[in-house]
Amino acid sequence: MSVLTDEMRSVAEQIVAKYPNRRSAALPLLFLVQSVEGHVTDSGMRDVADILGLTPAEVLATGSFYTMLKKKPQGEYLISVCRNISCTHLGAHKVFDAAREKLGIEPGGTTPDGRFSLEAAECLATCDGAPSMQINYEDFYKVTPSEVVEIIDSLAAGKDVKSVAGETVRPAKDIAFETATAGLDLPHETADTRERLVGGESPPSDMAPGHRPVVPGIDAPPAEGGGS
Amino acid sequence: MIDETYMVLKRAREFPKDSWTLKRALDDGAYDNLKKAVTEISQADLIELVKNAGLRGKGGAGFPTGMKWSFVPKDVFPKYVVINHDEGEPGTFKDREIAERDPHQMIEGIAIAAYAVGANKAFIYCRGEFALGSRRMDRAIKEAYEKGFLGKGIFGSKFDLDIVLHRGAGAYICGEESALLDSLEGFRGQPRLKPPFPAIKGLYGQPTVVNNTETVSTLPHIVANGVDWFKGFGTEKSPGTKVFSVSGHVERPGNYEVAYGTTLDQLLDLAGGMKDGKTLKAIIPGGASAPLLTHADYALDFDSLKEAGTMLGSGAVVYMDETTCMVRNALVTTEFFAHESCGKCTPCREGTSWAVKVLRRVESGEGRQEDMDLLLDIANGMDGRSFCPLGDAASWALRSNVKLFREEFEAHVREGRCTFDGEHKELVGARSGIDTGISQQGDEGLGGEDRLS
Ligand SMILES: Cc1cc2nc3c(=O)[nH]c(=O)nc-3n(C[C@H](O)[C@H](O)[C@H](O)COP(=O)(O)O)c2cc1C
Ligand code: SF4
Ligand code: FES
Question: Residue B248 phi/psi, 5° resolution?
C-alpha cells in the first residue's frame, strides 16, 4: 500500500532533483513519509525504496540510524528536553520532572490521546539558554517547571505558543514537511550545464557513492541512483 | 576587562533586530567581497591569500583552510564544497547563531570558498534540529539567487554556483566530515577510512572541501581587509578571532567573539563572571570532547591548550562551579558519547556503554573502589584504538574527569550516595532505553512490531 500520493511523489521528485545522485534524497524522503504518517512506517519506507531504486532494507538501514526519524507513532507535539552537560548542571531534571508529571509519560513515550511526546535530547546547541528545550524543533530558553506546564496547557487548548525567537510552534507533521522540503524552489541546474572555469575530465554520468568504488568485474555497475 | 573583537558576529551585534535580512545585509556591504573575489582575484591568488592569512578551521580540528583548499586537484570535475553546519559538540552554539543571524555572510563565504577551489555546487549540511536556521538560510539562498549572487555567471564572471540546502536527521557523528558525506549520500552516517581525504575523494568520490560555517563566514573579512589586517588579531599560529560559546555556571552565557590568545579568565569576565559569585571548579575548554581544566589561567589558542593537555576544539567553553558533581558530569558526558557512537568499531561502541554502566553504578552509590581503575582501563582501551576521533574523545573526557576528581568518585563509593544534591537521579534515568542498557545511534531500530517483512 502506497502512502505517498501522486502529489507527494511529485514533491519527492523535486527533492531528488536537488542532488546529483538519487540516493542522497533518502533523508528528506523519509521526512516526507513522516509528514504524512507521523512516523516512518514500513509502507512509507517501501515507497522511498521504490522512488530511489533501492531495496527496502537499504532504506531501513539508513532510516534507523537517525533520531529525528521516528520509529513509533508520535504525538502532535514533541517536547525535547536537553539532558546534556550545561543543561544538566543548570537543572534540566526539574524541567523533565514537570513535563513527566504533567503528561504522565516517561521520556520516549506519547500520551494516549496522541497529542504529546516527550524525549531526552542531546545538546540542542542552545546551551546559552540552559536548561533548554525544543517543541517540534522550536527553541525555548531558561525553561522553568511552571513554564513547561503552562506551555503544555496552551498547546492542549489549541492556543498559539511562540518560541524564544518568536516562531509559532507548529504541528509535528508540518515541521516534518518543512524539513523534507528545505531549499526546494531553487534553480538547481547550473552545475550540470555549467561553463567550466578551467578544462578537466567530465563527470561520470551517474556517480557511485564516494567510498564504494565500483570494481570492474566484481561489482555490477551502479544501479540507478548509485546504490551500494 | 577586555572588549570583544567583532568580525564574524559584527553584523549580528550591530544590527540585532534585522541582521539576517537581505536589505540590512546589503546596506552593510554584503556580497561586495564576493564581487571583489570573482572579478579581481584569481583562484590561485585567493587560495594563496587565505593560506597567508593563516586562517584555521573552526569546526574542531583547526586545520589551515588555505592548505586544505590547495590539496584539491585542479583538473578533476565536478568538485564540491560542503559546509558543515551540523554543530553537535555539546556546549557549542556558535554556528547556529551565525547562520540564524547572518545567513548572507555565510552564503557569501561559501561562494568565495567555492570560487577558490573551482566548485560549482555547494551543499550546506544543516543539523536537522535547526528549524529556524534552516528557514533563514533557505530564504537567504533564494534572495541571493534572485539578486544574481548565486546561479550562473556571478557578477558577470564565468563562475557559476548552486547551493543545496540539506537537512540532517539527528546524529552527532554526522559532524565528522566523512560520516557527513556518507549521510549526504543517503547512508548511515559512519566515518570513512582516511586517506583518501575528502579533498581528493569526497562526496560521490569527487574532490570535496568540507568547511565549517564559522570558517567560511570569516572569508569575506579576509578578502575585504587582507592578510596583515587579519594577522593583527590573535597569536602567530592562531591568527584572527574566534566565536566562543560560553555556558554553564556563568552570569551571561552566550557567544563571545574575541581574538585567539584571550585567556579563559578574560572570557569568563566577558560572560559576567561565575553565577551568583560561586567558585570555579572545572572548565571544559573546547566542547565535551576536550579534557577538563581546573583553572582559568590559560590562553585560548590552539597551541596553548594543546600544551595544557586539552584542546580548543569547537570553542565551546563550559564553566562549572563548586556545586557541580563531577561524577554526574562524567556520566552525562559518557552517556552522550555512548548514545552517539555510530557502532562501527568495537572499542568505542563497547567501551562507551561499559563505561556508562560503571558510572551509573558509582553515581547511584553502588560502586566499588576498583571502579575508578576500571574506568581508566576502559578509557585506555578506546584511546588511539578507535576508528574515528569520537572514541578517542570519549576516552579523554572520561579519563580527565576520573583523574582530576578521583576523590569525588571515591567519596560516592565510600558513602554509598551522591555527595552533592542527589536530586538528579531522575535525570539519569531520563534517556529512553535506559533499563536495557544504553541505546546507541540507530539502536532504537525501526522494527519491533513495525518490522519490514
Ligand atoms: C565526532 C566529530 C564531530 C564533529 N562535529 C563537527 C561539527 O558539528 N561541525 C564542524 O564544523 N565540524 C565537526 N567536526 C570536525 C569535522 O570533521 C571537520 O574537521 C570540519 O568540519 C572541517 O571544517 P573546518 O576545517 O572549516 O574546521 C567533528 C569531528 C568529529 C571527529
Ligand atoms: S570511534 Fe565510535 S563513532 Fe567513530 S567509528 Fe568507531 S564506533 Fe563510530
Ligand atoms: S547542553 Fe543543553 S543545549 Fe547544550
Answer: 100, -145
Query: Do A20 and B181 lie within an 8 Å CB cutoff?
Result: no
Quote the pLDDT of residue B445: 42
**Residue-number span of the structural domain to which A151 is assigned:** 77-170
- Which stretches of B70-142 are assigned E, i.e. beta strand? 80-85, 121-126
Which CATH number goes with the domain that contains A129? 3.40.30.10
> How far is C-alpha B72 from the geometric centre of its chain's CA atoms?
23
What's the number of domains chain B is made of?
3
From chain B residues 418-447, the ones with a CB under 8 A of any chain A CB are: 423-424, 426-427, 430-433, 441-442, 444-447
Q: Is residue A61 within 8 angstroms of chain B, CB to CB?
A: yes
By CB atoms closer than 10 A (0-12, 13-18, 19+), residue B28 is middle
Residue by residue, DSSP assigns B332-348 as HHHHHHHHH--SSSHHH
Half-sphere exposure of B266 (CA within 13 A, CB side): 17
**Cβ pair B128, B167 in contact under 8 A:** yes
Q: Report CA dihedral (B348, B351, B356, B358) to the nearest 10 degrees.
A: -170
Q: Whole-model pTM?
A: 0.93
Query: pLDDT tens, B145-179?
Result: 999 999 999 999 999 999 999 999 999 999 999 99
Give Dmax (Cα) for chain A: 66
Q: Looking at the domain assignment, is residue B297 inside a domain?
A: yes
Interatomic CA distance for residues B343 and B350, integer angstroms: 8
CATH of the domain at B334: 1.20.1440.230
In this structure, the answer to whether residues A24 and A51 fall within a common structural domain is yes
Q: Which residues of chain B have pLDDT under 50?
A: 424-438, 443-453
Q: How far apart are CA B125 and CA B86, in angstroms?
A: 6
At B125 the three-state DSSP class reads strand
Query: What's the order of all strands across the beta sheet hosting B254-259?
Result: B254-259, B241-248, B316-321, B280-284
Q: Is the CB of B59 under 6 A from ligand 1?
A: yes
Which residues numbered 382-411 in B keep a CB inside 8 Å of some CB on A? Answer: none
Contact A26 B186 (CB under 8 A): yes
β partners of residue B163? B122
Domain boundary residue among B198, B231, B264? B231
Spatial contact of B147 and B106, defined as CB atoms under 8 Å apart:
no
End position of a domain, from candidates A30, A49, A71: A71
Any chain A CB within 8 A of the CB of B145?
A: yes
What spacing in Å lies between the alpha carbon of B391 and ligand 2's midpoint?
6
CA B286–ligand 3 middle distance (angstroms): 14
Contact B49, B41 (CB under 8 A): yes
Domain containing B399 equals 326-428
- Return the ligand 2 atom nearest residue B382 CA: 1
Q: Answer yes or no: is the ipTM higher than 0.90.
A: yes
Which residue, B172, B9, B402, is CA-closest to A123?
Answer: B172
Number of the ligand 1 atom closest to the C-alpha atom of B127: 8
Which residue in B68, B36, B19 sits closest to B215, CA to CA?
A: B68
